[in-house]
């Protein structure tokens, strides 16, 4: 196929597409241009069969996009990608956790310690619910959690005692 033939072909395909778009949008005259991914998603109108040259073409399924006109050098690309505004900022507000040693943000809770404590608290809550046997049997006194080899102090004599069958973790203080 010669170049002029190909250009005519493309022009005809575009005219065809514009006509179909206008029919689908309900315009008799041509409205503003619209880019759509392929004409096969448009409804097939009754007049499309008696239009001139309705043979299927491989150009019908192509979505025409803008393409760069000149190659950008690798220096330009890397200057854009590695511009200081695009890089991740260096953090200076990180310190080791005094309890577990993992790195954490300053002035915030340590996530590792928080997870351990919340898991231990969930275990204690589960044990308490088993002890009570229901949501309405909660005693009116406070609860004290005692680990192995621990005895209640004088102030905790009258409170309800929850005993855990393990050694007290070094990071768990109540
Ligand atoms: Zn920690």
Please give a structural write-up:
The chain is of the alpha+beta class. It is 30% helix and 8% strand. It has three helices and four strands, in the order H-H-E-E-H-E-E. It has helices spanning 3-25, 74-81, 111-132; strands at 94-96, 103-105, 143-146, 160-163. A two-stranded antiparallel ribbon has the order 1-2. Strands 3-4 form a two-stranded parallel ribbon. Strand 1 and strand 2 form a beta hairpin. The N and C termini lie far apart (85 Å).
- The radius of gyration over CA amounts to 37 Å
Helix count from the secondary structure assignment: 3
- Spatial ordering of strands, largest sheet: 1-2
Fraction of residues in helix:
25-40%
Short descriptors:
single chain; 174 residues; alpha+beta; two-stranded antiparallel sheet; two-stranded parallel ribbon; 4 strands; 30% helix; 8% strand; elongated; binds zinc ion
Task: Please write out the topology.
Blueprint: H1 3-25, H2 74-81, E1 94-96, E2 103-105, H3 111-132, E3 143-146, E4 160-163
Parallel strand pairs: 3-4
Antiparallel strand pairs: 1-2
């Amino acid at each position: 196929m010669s170049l002029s033939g190909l250009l005519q072909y493309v022009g005809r395909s575009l005219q065809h597409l514009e006509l179909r778009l206008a029919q689908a949008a309900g315009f008799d005259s041509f409205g503003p241009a619209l880019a759509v991914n392929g004409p096969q998603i448009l409804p097939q109108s009754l007049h499309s069969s008696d239009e001139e040259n309705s043979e299927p073409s491989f150009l019908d399924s192509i979505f025409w996009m803008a393409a760069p006109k000149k190659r950008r050098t690798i220096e330009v690309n890397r200057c854009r990608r590695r511009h200081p505004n695009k890089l991740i900022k260096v953090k200076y507000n990180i310190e080791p956790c005094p309890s577990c040693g993992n790195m954490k943000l300053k002035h915030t809770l340590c996530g590792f310690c928080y997870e351990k404590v919340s898991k231990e608290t969930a275990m204690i809550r589960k044990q308490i619910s088993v002890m009570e046997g229901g949501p309405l049997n909660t005693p009116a006194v406070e609860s004290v959690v005692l680990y192995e080899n621990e005895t209640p102090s004088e102030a905790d004599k009258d409170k309800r005692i929850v005993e855990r069958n393990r050694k007290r973790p070094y990071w768990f203080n109540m």
